[in-house]
Amino acid sequence: MKDAKNTRWVPELLAPAGSLEKLKVAISYGADAVYLGGQKYGLRQAADNFTIEEIREGVEFAHAHGSCVYVVLNSFFHDKDFDGLLDFIQELDAVKIDAVIVSDPGVINYIAENTNLEIHLSTQASCLNVESAKLWKKLGVTRIVLGREVSIADAKMIKEEAGVEIEMFVHGSMCMAYSGNCVISNYTQGRDSNRGGCAHSCRFEYKIDDGKKELNSYFMSSKDLEGIRLLQDFIDAGIDSLKVEGRMKSPMYAGTISMVYSQALAYYKEHGNFLSEDLLKWEEELTKVTHRAYTQASLVEEADESSIYNDREHEEKTYRAIGKVAQVVKDEFIVVDVKSAFEIGESLEILPFNDSHVEVNISHIKNLAGQDFSRTRPGALFKIPYVDGVDINNLVRARVTN
Amino acid sequence: MKAITYISHIDELESLDTSKFSEVILATRLFSQVGKLTIDEMLEIIEKCKAQKVKYTLEWDILMTESRFKMYREQFKKYADLGFSSIRLRDPGAINFILNSYENLSIDLLLDTGGHHNIKAIKVWKNLVGDRLRKIILSIELSSNVVKEFCQEIKSWGVKTELLVLGRILLFYTPRNLVSPLYTDEDLEEFENNGKYIEVAGSSEESPHKGFPIIENQHGTFMFNTKDQYLLEYLDEIEECGVDDIRIDVRHLDKESKSVVDKTISLCENFNKEEAKEFKNQYPNSTTRGFFHVNKSDVLFKKLKNKRVQREDQGFIGEVVDVVKKSHIAILVKGMRNEDIALKVGDELRLSTPDGKEKFTKIHKLTQTNGKEVQDVKTGELILIPHVSGISVKTMAYLK
């Protein structure tokens, strides 16, 4: 891992990078690797996917920080989708990405035949057992992102018996279906869920009718995964990479989750355990980003009814994401790229990359033209008082007061 | 073109003219996603199949985590020698297990889900399974011209193909129990009497489609489309595509199932489009031809995001991050990597707005956020240029 001063092994922390901005934020807050999508072939058609120059810039940034970049090509291809694939994968090879994440066997074979790219199997392929892992390995896959239904104990067995690298989800939203086996959007919305068009119909409320009575429920909606208390189990099982879901989520999400899990893993490297008072702090930090109620899902035992999230969205927030630092002019001011408005008199928390948060009391606000304001507006840049220890791309948040 | 169908009760073997079928499918509660046969019932049917010289195949289409797979492997060992003409497999683990452990068993690959919409993917499995591969079950998301191309290629490998022409369309499959938590112990007792097989209908205000059939059993929860796949009108086209076996899955129709199967077989033998259309009106459920004629499930993708706010690589300078009317436009300079100067006074810019407009401006002044004027800026810097009307945040700036 990046920190060479301690020798204890910990898994790679793999964060989502929905944009170049999120890539830089996630890596700056401690992610060992990020995954991102190009403008074709990923499963997030609505995302701000990367151009090849953005991928190049992202790879340079990541490698300069000792991190890796994986590119997802995990849609299920129709024959016409192969048009342009050769150029794209050769470009990826040329900009020195670290691996591609693929689910379609035809694409795996095509990439193996035409490039030297390392191939990771996407969770979309629903690899769930030792025999399956052995078979994918035969196809040239070096790492398997296991299905979310697999427990850590089973994952250990798969790694040992199949002899492949194993990646597991540690945090984020969950598909309730076996990934790659849900086509609700295809038939109800005309959007292929396995080519990037998932409409999240599983999050809808449904009326269930058994012929005798009707019940309303969000029965197909899952709570979000949180594996912070299972890090020791992941390490003991030798899981190679811990993946955070959420390319569509905000920089605040990518940064906060990367910060928390990297801090926890760094603590382990130093102490060889997670018996830290900080555990409660880490858990509290994870509640400060927008999320559904948390579950450990299937990581320890098969997920039961307690993993069903019986609500449309989680709106209860203790913190709100203000934005991020766009510029620091030493001893003069800090420029904040504002996503959520704040006003004079508020106290903001800025999260440095390697330290605890810095508080800034907002005594004045100016726009970039130097005009005074009492309150900011979203989608604009504003200057706030300078405080020490703040960098560009630091996240800014504020406690919600009623 | 022959038919293949499920046998859910021993009496069906007597009532169906089995000479019309290439074989029958045995779907057990143990190995099949929504199978209802007990092992005893399966054994009884097998005996009768043998007596009637009807070929039978075992469906093992569940996906399995390692812990569960161990149990299913052990179970399978008990029944592997029952004379199945093939095993229908979906989980790659089960495929590998059968390949390595039972060298005389033929394999039918359920490639109707997952990434099997291109012939390259199917060929990968063909190469892995080799001579043991007997049949490929094609996805119903393939359009007829693609089915035709695939069938021609697959036939050249000496492998058969199968397509669902009549039956439920599976939309969602999870190993979790999602329905039973909604019910009381008393309700569940009733379900228990039904062999832990819960059937309900689901509807959402957020979807115009009402009454999705939902099943929960020991393998998890399954949701099906509100309309059944119905391709009887196109049996002539399907035959012309080169499909070897058409699958009829009307297990959910209960009493009507026999007449539907009989009618399908009759249409297979003496195809009549008008009759097939007319029969659709008598079919007990709503129907769809799905994606048989065209699969356009990617055409809406371009509406999912504003392409105009996505950068182009050529000439890219940066993104507008702040606008104050009559004062400035702030650009976060990102482009022109590896060059000392990214932007300088005198450059001409093309500004591409999120609402599709293009504006052009020549830079006369570059101002830092502390008010200092400069002649040029490097990548990564935040810089102000004089205001240009009609420009908003997220506008992309390119060198003209």
TrEMBL record, chain A:
Recorded superkingdom: Bacteria
Limits of the Peptidase family U32 C-terminal domain: 318-397
Coiled coil: none
Keywords: Hydrolase, Protease
Pfam families linked: Peptidase_U32, Peptidase_U32_C
Protein family membership: Belongs to the peptidase U32 family.
Listed name of the protein: U32 family peptidase
Organism: Halobacteriovorax vibrionivorans
Automatic annotation (TrEMBL), chain B:
InterPro entries referenced in this protein's UniProt entry, alphabetically: Peptidase_U32, RNA/ubiquinone_mod_enzymes
A Pfam family it matches: Peptidase_U32
Protein name: Peptidase family U32 C-terminal domain-containing protein
